[in-house]
Amino acid sequence: MRLTDHEQAMYDGEHGIAKQKAMDLLVRYGNALGAERLVDTRNVAGTIGATTPFMRKYADEAGGLDAVFSEFNLDSREVVRIPKVSVYSSHLQQGIDPEHAAEQGVGEDVVRIFRKGDAYSAGLGVQLLNTCAPYQVGNLPARGEHCAWMESSAVIYINAVLGAKSNAEGRESTGAAMLTGKIPYWGYHIDENRRGTHAIDVDVPIESMSDWGMLGYFVGDRVQDRVPVITGIGRAPNMVRLKHFGAAAASSGGVEMYHIPGYTPEAPSVEAAFGGNRPIERFVFGRKELRETYDNLNATASDVDVDFVMLGCPHYSIEQIWEVCQLLEGRKVHVNSNLWIFTPRATKQICDQNGYTRIITEAGGFLMSDTCSALGRVMPKGVKVAAVDSAKQVHYLPAIMGIQAWFGSTADCIDAAVTGRWNGGLR
Q1: Are 91 and 373 a contacting pair, CB within 8 Å?
Q2: pTM (whole model) above 0.90
Q3: C-alpha torsion 19→21→22→24, nearest 10
Q4: What are the TM regions of this chain, as residue ranges (predicted)?
Q5: Is residue 279 within 8 Å of residue 247, measured between CB atoms?
Q6: What are the extents of the domains in the chain?
Q7: What is the pLDDT along the chain (427 residues), one digit of tens a residue?
Q8: 202 CB burial (10 A radius; 0-12, 13-18, 19+)
Q9: C-alpha distance from residue 289 to each of 93, 246, 423 (Å)
């Protein structure tokens, strides 16, 4: 790997031992990938917290949060003092919502560690967005901007919808990038790798958020980690629909980049989307494929008695919470069910101001932040059957938590929360 003079100086330790270890990690990582050089980044989204039981134990035994950063972000058993970050960095979702620890079954000792971690991250200059969707609340990369982001649903969004450039990074590479402002130049940082490889012809109306989630799940399953070009889309999709499409495609496959000609920024036409490539394969998404995808997403569920409804994967936007409140206002969550909705902290503040939090609370639900059920492994005690409107969450939640889960529209899910029964279906 070729290093610039500045990179070589960091690698040699002239800018401190923490940056030296960060550069050592990035060079090893880049060499393993076959990257010939590093690229500058001024935008990192990662995680440096210690909310899992193992990391909390490690922090106690090894000497605090510098030890956690050293081991889990820099791959160093030697504990080094971590300086302030060098570039704009934001924290992704964590393991709990400290304001709803009781509902999530989290003890005060965990909350104390969480708050200590927040203070530590803020002290390093990391923005405490604590969300899987930082582009909704203050970190909105520009087209062409080289980023270093974790979180599959966020990476695919900034690549395809915004035209920024990032691979799906890990805790280690993003931690190193925070300190150095560097990341290996490979994958989707390179223009030729962003060109379309597979064609998806949509032959059925795709309107609702759940429609887009099912389309995404189908696409990811078919193309895996390649670059699909989707045609046949009628009405222009909004941010919410593209967010759920990307999250689903990144879950059933490993999609990090896609094109919708006429809508996404690097695809003014089909020809531009493929950039001279010929499609490796072509797939059709019609009524048959829609039905098969819906049935696949609901394969874990058989019991129609729903005791948990979880919304907000990826974290809900203010528009989605507004829509939920229209469906929920004046109604009550069933005595045998629970309703949890997840959103970024910053969005929750707007919900407080707009009265949306009050509407959800008066109905018997909870508006939470900072985590989600699958990532934090937090649910009401004794849950057996959940309902979700996220293809990503229904993909992970049954496997992680060992429960049944129904997938459907947001309206279906609110109805399940109010009645305690699943009445959803493909329409």
Answers
A1: no
A2: yes
A3: 120
A4: none
A5: no
A6: 5-189, 195-296, 299-419
A7: 999 999 999 999 999 999 999 999 999 999 999 999 999 999 999 999 776 777 777 777 777 899 999 999 999 999 999 999 999 999 999 999 999 999 999 999 889 889 999 999 999 999 999 999 999 999 999 999 999 999 999 999 999 999 999 999 999 999 999 999 999 999 999 999 999 999 999 999 999 999 999 999 999 999 999 999 999 998 899 999 999 999 999 999 999 999 999 999 999 999 999 999 999 999 999 999 999 999 999 999 999 999 999 999 999 999 999 999 999 999 999 999 999 999 999 999 999 999 999 999 999 999 999 999 998 999 999 999 999 999 999 999 999 999 999 999 999 999 999 999 999 999 8
A8: buried
A9: 33, 18, 22
Contact 397, 405 (CB under 8 A): yes
CATH of domain 5-189: 3.30.499
Q: Which helix (H) or strand (E) holds 58?
A: helix 53-62
- CA atoms of 367 and 369, how far apart (whole Å): 7
Q: Is 252 within 8 Å of 222 (Cβ atoms)?
A: no
- How far is C-alpha 171 from the chain's CA centre? 14
Question: Do 416 and 385 contact (CB within 8 A), yes or no?
Answer: no
Q: What is the CA radius of gyration of the chain?
A: 22
Could you tell me the two tokens for 6?
């500045």
Distance of CA 33 to the CA centre of its chain: 23
Q: Which of 380, 247, 254, 364 is nearest to 316 (CA)?
A: 247
Q: Does the domain formed by 299-419 have CATH 3.40.190.10?
A: no
- The Cβ of residue 204 has, within 10 Å, a number of other Cβ atoms equal to 17
Q: Strands 385-388 and 308-311: what pairing?
A: parallel
Do the strands 43-46 and 88-91 form a parallel or antiparallel pair, or are they unpaired?
parallel
Residue 288 in tokens: 């048959």
Same fold, 5-189 and 299-419: yes
